């Protein structure tokens, strides 16, 4: 399994499987790591990259730089489902992170491969995630 980034929430940990278009759900218990599920976000070429937990670990946003989307996952303990909510945030969203009370997420894009179209977007993850603003990053 080729994997992207690992993030831990309240009940589950998530590993982005870049070459599969999936996210593995991982349980950490008694010093053991066990894959307890897998959810499909898109085609293998969707290339999920980074999960970001919010809403006290009950939801996660996952960037997909292969098809220019961000997916939302719903999390209940070790049960993870795809919400069907997808957002756009520039060309090839890759890195996603937040700080403080997690009222906003910041998404950096890879852009068009050297054509100066890299952007940074501000995402509001509340209710239905929304792209608040996008700026060029040079």
How does this model look, in words?
This protein is mostly beta strands. It has one domain: Methylamine Dehydrogenase, Chain H (7 Propeller). The strands form three sheets. A four-stranded antiparallel β-sheet has the order 1-2-3-4, with no helix packed on it. The termini are far apart.
Poorly predicted runs of 5 or more residues: 1-6
CATH top level assignment: Mainly Beta
Structural domains: how many? 1
The average pLDDT score comes to: 85
What is the terminal separation in angstroms? 34 Å
Find the CATH topology: Methylamine Dehydrogenase, Chain H
Please outline what is shown here.
The chain has no helices and twelve strands. It has 138 residues and is an all-beta fold. The protein has one domain (6-136): Methylamine Dehydrogenase, Chain H, CATH 2.130.10.
Topology (SSEs and partners):
Blueprint (H helix, E strand, L loop, with lengths): L5 E3 L4 E5 L4 E8 L2 E9 L7 E7 L4 E6 L4 E8 L2 E9 L5 E5 L7 E5 L9 E6 L5 E7 L2
Antiparallel strand pairs: 1-2, 2-3, 3-4, 5-6, 6-7, 7-8, 9-10, 10-11, 11-12
Task: Provide key terms for this protein.
four-stranded antiparallel sheet; Methylamine Dehydrogenase, Chain H; single chain; 57% strand; 12 strands; mainly beta; globular; 138 residues
């Amino acid at each position: 399994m080729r994997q992207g980034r690992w993030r831990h929430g309240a009940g589950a940990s998530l590993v982005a499987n870049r070459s599969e278009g999936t996210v593995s759900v991982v349980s950490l218990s008694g010093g053991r790591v066990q894959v307890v599920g897998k959810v499909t976000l898109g085609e293998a070429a969707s290339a999920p990259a980074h999960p970001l937990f919010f809403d006290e670990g009950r939801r996660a946003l996952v960037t997909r730089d292969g098809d220019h989307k961000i997916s939302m996952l719903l999390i209940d303990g070790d049960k993870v489902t795809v919400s069907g909510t997808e957002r756009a945030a520039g060309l090839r969203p890759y890195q996603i992170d937040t700080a403080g009370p997690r009222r906003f997420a910041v998404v950096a894009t890879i852009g068009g491969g050297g054509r100066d179209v890299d952007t940074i977007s501000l995402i509001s993850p509340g209710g239905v995630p929304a792209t608040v603003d996008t700026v060029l990053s040079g």
